[in-house]
Amino acid sequence: MRDSLREDSDLDYDLLDLAEVGLPFLDEPRKAALQRYEHDHTRAWSQLVQSYHGFVFVFPQYNWGYPAVLKNAVDYLYREWHERPASLLTYGTRGGGKAAEQFISVLHGLHMRLLDTHVEAVITEQDVDEDGQLRDLYSTLQPNRDLLRKIDAEMTEALTKS
């Protein structure tokens, strides 16, 4: 996905894997809006998020919702998300629209600037191998190439207006 967004783009995209970030279940004693973080992992997460100008959240739809690890990571912070442009790439056997609806509400609560374009990638049984891993990311995302380019254009515009 990152390479798909980078094609013909002036922007640089990184992948933040929440498994690698490794945040525990939310353990800050004060609400995030105060930015009085007690734990080093929260301060590190805050600095990492602040180092980016915008976000494309990529996540699966599970049981009509988005993963708890994503909600946990977002809830650790508050002001760090403000005014950052954001888009979504959801995926699943039905594309992820219901998960996107729920997450969009959260992003509004964080005062993020939601882009107009999002991707709902449908992943079928034919797209994955016997271990459940994508066989070919390029062909799976191919039907969404135009939307990915549109997200890049909207992100570029949003960041230019910042």
From TrEMBL:
Residues 7-117 form the NADPH-dependent FMN reductase-like domain. SUPFAM superfamilies: Flavoproteins (SSF52218). It comes from the Bacteria. This is NADPH-dependent FMN reductase-like domain-containing protein. It comes from Amycolatopsis minnesotensis.
